[in-house]
Amino acid sequence: MQPFGSIKQFVPVGANAIMLYFSGSNLEQANAACQQWLRVFDRAASHSERPWLVECVPSYDSLLIIFDIERVDSHFVYNTLRSWQNGGNTLIGPAGGSQEGGETEVAAGKCHTLPVWYGAPDANDLAEISKKTTLSIEDIISLHTSVEYKVYAVGFAPGFGYMGDIPIQLQCPRLSTPRKKVPKGAVAIADRQTAVYSSESPGGWNLMGLCPENMLDKDNQPLLSAGDTVKFVSITESEFNAYHEG
Amino acid sequence: MKVEVISKGLFSLIVDEGRIGKQRQGFSQSGPMDEMAYHWANFLAHNPDNTPCLEVMGKMTVCFSEPTIVAVAGRQVKVQVNGHDQPSYSSIKVNKNDRLSFESEYVGSKAYLAIYGKWKVPYQVGSACTVVRESLGGLHGDGRVISDSDCIDISRCDEQTYEAVSVRQLPMRHRLSMQHSMSKKCGTRTACDINAPLRVIKGYQEAHFSQVAKRMFESSEYTVSSSIDRMGYRLTGADIASSLSTMRSEAIHVGAIQVPPDGQPIIMMRDRQTLGGYPKLGCLNPLDVNRLAQRVPGETVSFIFQNSEEARADILLSRQHVQRLRGEIA
Description:
The structure holds 2 protein chains of 2 kinds.
Chain A: E1 7-12, E2 17-22, H1 27-47, E3 53-58, E4 62-67, H2 74-86, E5 111-118, H3 126-133, H4 137-144, E6 149-154, E7 161-164, E8 179-182, E9 186-190, E10 193-196, E11 201-203, E12 206-210, E13 229-234, H5 237-245
Parallel strand pairs in A: 5-13
Antiparallel strand pairs in A: 1-2, 2-4, 3-4, 5-12, 6-7, 6-13, 7-10, 8-11, 9-10, 9-12
Chain B: E1 2-7, E2 11-15, H1 35-44, E3 53-57, E4 60-64, E5 68-74, E6 77-81, E7 84-86, E8 92-94, E9 99-104, E10 111-115, E11 151-153, H2 159-164, E12 198-202, H3 211-219, E13 222-228, E14 232-236, E15 250-251, E16 256-258, E17 266-268, E18 275-276, E19 280-284, H4 286-293, E20 300-301, E21 303-305, H5 308-329
Parallel strand pairs in B: 12-21
Antiparallel strand pairs in B: 1-4, 1-11, 2-3, 3-10, 4-9, 5-8, 5-10, 6-7, 6-9, 12-19, 13-14, 13-20, 14-17, 15-18, 16-17, 16-19
């Protein structure tokens, strides 16, 4: 299966799935191409009467396509993608063209502002992060709040959004031994990524504080979707407590 | 009607076909560990597909407040009503206050109890399936597994239905041999038994595993470790580490053979996390995920590579066979 357009590789995954990997001059572009193709699939699924598409699972620069093996095989899926691309599907961009430098149509994601009580005692590795990065705690907080992050993928746990990239000065490795329990709402960094733990879970990221917003609503709908943007703002302990009371 | 759990066994939970289309939000696929047994249990209890069932490890005892129809399926399951043996893989008509006990002969294997009727249990994110880690499903909708003296509320089986429905029974030879195979090692048989090699379709980061590692993987036996749960089955045996050290997290398909740096494969099962960053050699044929799910610590498994065309043929053949059997039994 020859690659085309922004798809740099087709890789088999079991009997009833294939993986698409996307190209781009940087991760953000590859991720945008992934989002674009995901929308193409979603539209196809909603239009087709007998869908052969079971599920799509996007990540940073890859998209898993699970198909109904009784109806189709991986060659059918490949040929369908080709025909979408060649048919000038408006969501995909110029047929056969490279996405690099081109204008790709990207649906605007939502913008979220998430408050963080930095240094909350239940989730505070700031001293560790300071050691790893040689930055002062004030600088760590001001760097973390200085950037608008992109949600690259949602996964690992329900509503857990992988966001990036954090400023390079903040880059720091995971804990050598993961914690058994990270509290719900913990705001964390690892490598060039940042995230908010959507529920209490094990985890190996460096914790910076607590976010009072729920990452899942009462109906288990995640707050964040891939393609959204997030900005963190610093709040005080009393503002954090007021958030819960309010 | 109430079904009271007198004894929950070792680990028991409510399952249905699981959550489809929600992995992009981070929800596990979930679903029964042995789909084949789950589907038979529901069919034999005269339930439509996707009705909840109890997935049970160890010995469970339940008591019924009204007459109804039940069925138990799984690996070598022993079934008793009020102390008298009953067939597994068969419709069983139970009476008011009857006590049903069942367990697999293999500690760690899963038995499925299907009970006729509409289960009045919470549905979350499109499914009644319990996922402990995600606090979803279960009787209280908070991911709790079944405990002693829990009561499950199920619509009652009216007298007419109870009298009229046929007793469905799956012949012995079809119980654990539903997995047809076109693969060479199984080719002389029409079906694979539980000990036949697990079929693997190479894929994912396959190119980063050496020829030697792949040959080792196919020619050696692996032992099912005690680290097996609904997320994954950790095996021990020949080291097949890949040359990849880091990679970006990507979607993990059911049955994926994940190989962390220690070289010991982990087969990813129904409650696996949706994304992960360890290299993967390929995936089990989906039929064989069911077979692996019934293996217990200390047993050995082996693998055989097949291409995706063979896998597709196996799956289509198996589904046809199941359809035909359902027609014959009904």
